Amino acid sequence: LALLSGLVATVSMNKIRQAKESALKEDLHSLRKSIDDFYADTGKYPKKLGDLADQRYLRSIPADPLTESDGTWQPVYSQALDQKGGIVDIHSGSEEKSSDGNNYSEW
Fold first, then answer.
1. Is 67 exposed, middle or buried (0-12, 13-18, 19+ CB in 10 A)?
2. How confident is the prediction for the chain on average, in pLDDT?
């Protein structure tokens, strides 16, 4: 019985991890597409993530599925002088490693 419950717990934890990874991939895709759309429409990158919601490119900034907070996203700012530090990319704020061994913050 103990062996069976241990197996069920392991399978459950793996399924939860897979679900969070899938949600993270989808959120990163949506955020990156919104950043690109913002740039295509305005000719500049957003200064903060909230600009994407304020300008209706997203309904709201999603919570990072791994940290469960919308404030832990790690924006990557442009170094180009003409962009004045706008957000060009986004990463998870989690310091954990994914099932493939990479850091989530590198996705």
1. middle
2. 92
